[in-house]
Amino acid sequence: MTLIAILLGTLAAGIGSVWLAAALSFGVLARYTQHMLSLAAGALLGTAFLHLLPEAFESAVEPHTLFLTLLVGVVFFFLLDKAELWHHGHEHHQHEAGDADPAQEHGHQHGHAHGAAGRSAGGWAVLAGDSVHCFGDGILIASAFMADLRLGVIAAVAVLAHEVPHHMGDLMVLRLTSGTRKAALLKVTLAGAITALGGLVGYWLVDLLRDYLTYFLVVASSSFVYVALADLIPQLQKRLSLSETLAQIAWLLAGIALVTLASAATHAH
Asked: How do residues 76-95 score in pLDDT, each as one tens digit?
């Protein structure tokens, strides 16, 4: 039963995020890109601080050890980011903000950043980085499912939310290198499906190392916190009008509410 839940959760997060990204990149939902960033940041922070970490701290492990694990995890993902294995080039789009309309700015930044990456390394390099990222997400989702079904659902929702802006950038690069939107969507969908492979490996790995499950939950939390604070929130730190700022805050809170509702719905069953 747990393995089936892991497969469903990883496929929903991995492939569902690609299709939602395609709708935001190529479809009528493109105007909501900036709101999606706020939603993803809220979902990640809510998952880490309201669900995964409280679950980990209910164990018999000393809090000091868990906080140390959290710190090491954040530094680890920072190093992966520097190596362009975790976010494969997303960090430099933060320095390219101009005076463009904030609702469209993220898409233009991703297009420029990934366009430069695509010309230098090619679309396959983007796919390779995305596959590594998705594989890691699958392991994190499996860790949460192994601890509790409710936590697994929450983690899958959080991963789906934060993968959308990343996949939008990938789709833009591959749209240029592949020639058609359909080809780009197919390639990124296949990369997203690697999340399920990570889930399978995670199921075997976490089952083998069940005594260390608490640490897996903390590492998953460190990943979510790092992505939210280092990748998503900096893109939201722009000078906006009062109404735009209030909308940004509302979508951030909606992300937190989303994982809370997912938790309540799963707990009820």
From this structure: 888 877 776 544 544 444 44
